[in-house]
Amino acid sequence: MNGIIEWFARNGVAANLLMVTIMALGIHAVVYRIPLEVFPSFELDVITINIPFRGATPEDVEEGVLQRVEEAVFDLEGIKELRSEAREGSARINIEVEKGVKPRTLLDDVKNRVDAISTFPAETERPIYSVATHSRNVISVVVSGEISERELRHYGDRVRDDLIALPGITQVTLEAARPYEIAIEVSETTLQQYGITFDDVATAIRRSSLDLSAGSIRTRGGEILLRTKAQAYVRDDFASIVVLPRKDGTRLTLGEIAAMRDDFEESPIQAHFNGRTALVLEVYRVGDQNAIDV
After folding, report:
1. Domain residue spans of the chain
2. How does DSSP assign 4-71, residue by residue?
3. Which of 45, 110, 248, 257 registers the highest number of CB atoms within 10 A of its CB?
4. Architecture of 181-264 per CATH?
5. What gap in Å lies between CA 13 and CA 123, rounded to an integer?
6. What is the pLDDT of residues 67-76, one digit of tens each?
7. pLDDT tens digits, residue range 12-62?
8. Does domain 42-134 have CATH number 3.30.70.1430?
9. DSSP category for residue 94
């Protein structure tokens, strides 16, 4: 070590060249290699499972979903703590991972166990798995105005699409916005009048509102794929669903017996900016993107 220092002391030009080289490499790394961000994103040692169960009470969610999931995964190695939460219409399970265990590896084992459960109620939807991450937005964009909630949501979606279309921006989330929802209400008197049950109505909606592949037909000109597109999205689509076909050829549709509301989910989400209703768009840095450029 002393010999190296002594050599550089006698050769000042070489020492200066080395210093310039180190500085140049550092500047190059800062400008071109190291991404600038407001706060680093990192994964937490927590696996989250969300299972929608529309229309279910917390008690139904606990008995029909949570107990089955807990019984399926509790003995997996690498689980430090398991916390379950039964909500109205959904189940949430948080699995804390022990130190030294990779969350992604344990996630695969959890997914295999939960996907193998065949006793979930028919109304449950496909589980959503994720490893909890901590990320901070680069900038927030506020859209506000003295207009209706539907118009504000429309403009919020347009601004989000315009932001994502910009070069260098790949992730924009819309916050403080209630999800769209179509509420369908059928009175008990109406059900008795037509001799049907609420389950009949739900079954009719479930069977009719879907896109279904029906195979293919081979012809001399090529292969034709068959697919029905009947997924309902708006009120008029649901109103035309047939609930009860009659012997005389007439049909009872959902629009004739149900009160339908094409609006937003009834959740207490509100945001205001300068006294006006607002939506917030959060712009995030992804991958090697630079926070300053974003």
Report:
1. 42-134, 139-179+267-284, 181-264
2. HHHHHHH-HHHHHHHHHHHHHHHHHIIIIISPP-SS--EEEEEEEEEEEBTT--HHHHIIIIIHHHHH
3. 110
4. 2-Layer Sandwich (3.30)
5. 77
6. 999 999 988 9
7. 777 788 888 888 887 776 666 665 565 666 567 889 999 998 878 889 999
8. yes
9. E
